[in-house]
Amino acid sequence: MSEKSIEELLKKLAAGAQLSEPEKKEMKDYKFWKTQPVPSFDETITTQGPIETKTIADISTEPLPLLKEFEWADLDINKQEDHDEVFKLLYENYVEDADSTFRFKYTKEFLDWALKPPGYRRDWHVGVRVKATGRLIGFIAGIPTDLDVRSQEIKAVEINFICVHKKLRSKRLAPILIKEVTRRVNLQGIFQALYTAGVVLPSPVSVCRYNHRPINWKKLHSVGFSYLPDGVSETQMIAKYTLRNQGKVKNLRRATLDDFEGVESLFTKFQKRYELTQKFSTDELKHWLFGDASIKNEDKVIHTFVVEDEQGKITDFFSFYLLPFTILDNKEHDELGIAYLFYYASDVAFDKEEKEGNQLLKKRLTELIGDALIIAKSLGVDVFNALTTQDNNLFLQDLKFGEGDGLLNYYLFNYRVKQIEGGLNDKNHVDYNDVSKMGVVML
Ligand SMILES: CC(C)(COP(=O)(O)OP(=O)(O)OC[C@H]1O[C@@H](n2cnc3c(N)ncnc32)[C@H](O)[C@@H]1OP(=O)(O)O)[C@@H](O)C(=O)NCCC(=O)NCCS
């Protein structure tokens, strides 16, 4: 694989992005999005709040009409057959590289975690089937989430996993899926949404970039995922990315539900550093950081670790989730382990000695996430991804994360707010001298 195609793959891995470098069309060419309550590119935003105001009474109780060949599917992903259909649609059509070598492995555990947080609604798992065969060819999901946008609290949903079968692309099915999920969400009195995409749409509230830290460089190279730069030997590359066997952080251990209160209070305080965050209820945070407690450690999707000091106080935590790739047509390997950095917090951020530039936090996060890499390796992870969200820019370079090619755009539906720093400089590259104000990590 050429260097270019690897970068393209990483980009897709990052954001479900499209293959070509995202190009911004003119507003008038966004035939669908120009009809939606979203800010246009050239708008100077001076006020903050909803773009249009509606009430439930304004919303149709009838599903949107579909072409006669299709019908809306009432999916229940608690049912094995519905779950399998969603899995198959995403597995075969969500994102893959040009050679069809890698595919996301959305396990049952992953989909349960991603699509069934507390308060989830079955009717927000929206499917489209071919009437004649019953085959699922479209999907979009909404999950409830309350947001804090620059100190304004809004009830919202997160929209994710929009997917149309490859054979039915460019037929304007995506706008119908988006409008139908919007209608169903509106009927519950919710009029705002958060979503991300690799593609440029009107208009990002924040732009972040993915970064990749090879863990098993040899394997990444052998499956065509990482390339050997000119003038460097394989041995040098392996040596560059070799991790210590033992972590550095004292009293670091896997979190248990008994740690929850400590984690919650630390997290809530830490999240105040950012301008866009989720307002998790206790049950939601439990779900997102602890997942299904009955799942064995080696099968878990979400992995959370804490540091407990001698007084029994939780001083730090970090979490990452696993979403591997299935590798097709490779004799040696059938899976690529991929970890994504999720939420973290450390109480050094509140230290009186902490100065502008976050020197204490930089040191602490470098130690913590450095240990996360070692733990991830023990769980079979081959590459560890992190965005430029949160305070990630403080440790990316020291921990040998390489800048990815993929940008991740964050969008708010029916809400206007001034841009939120995503940790990039004016050329959209990682700003190692500054941190982002984006506190949301979406799957
Ligand atoms: C994303 C996907 C559903 C779009 O469907 P499509 O058949 O390519 O496009 P359609 O003809 O149905 O619709 C085109 C409209 O959808 C918009 N669109 C495309 N991708 C979008 C996305 N990820 N989010 C929101 N809108 C999107 C386009 O901008 C266009 O609207 P416009 O005329 O205002 O510009 C489809 O390409 C797909 O399944 N891709 C693989 C999975 C994926 O990448 N999902 C997105 C992850 S962020």
CATH-derived topology of the largest domain: Aminopeptidase
Specify the number of helices. Answer: 9
> Bound compounds, please?
coenzyme A
Q: Tell me about the biggest sheet? A: 13 strands, mixed
Order of helices and strands: HEHEHEEEHEEHHEHEHEEEEEHEE
How widely separated are the two ends? 27 Å
Can you name the CATH architecture of the largest domain? 3-Layer(aba) Sandwich
The CATH class of the largest domain: Alpha Beta
For CATH, the homologous superfamily of the largest domain is named as Gcn5-related N-acetyltransferase (GNAT)
Number-wise, the strands total 16
Choose one word for the global shape. globular
Catalytic activity: N-terminal glycyl-[protein] + tetradecanoyl-CoA = N-tetradecanoylglycyl-[protein] + CoA + H(+)
Function: Adds a myristoyl group to the N-terminal glycine residue of certain cellular proteins.
Subcellular location: Cytoplasm
Pfam families: NMT, NMT_C
Give an overview in words:
With 443 residues, this protein is an alpha+beta fold. The protein has two domains: 28-195, Aminopeptidase; 207-413, 3-Layer(aba) Sandwich (Aminopeptidase). The chain contains nine helices and 16 strands. Strands 1, 3, 4, 5, 6, 7, 8, 9, 10, 11, 14, 15 and 16 form a 13-stranded mixed beta sheet that branches. Strand 4 (136-149) and strand 5 (152-164) form a beta hairpin. The longest helix has 20 residues, at 359-378. The protein is globular and about 60 Å long. The protein starts with a helix and ends in a 30-residue tail after the last strand. The relative contact order is 0.18. The site of coenzyme A has 22 residues, from strand 5 and helix 4.
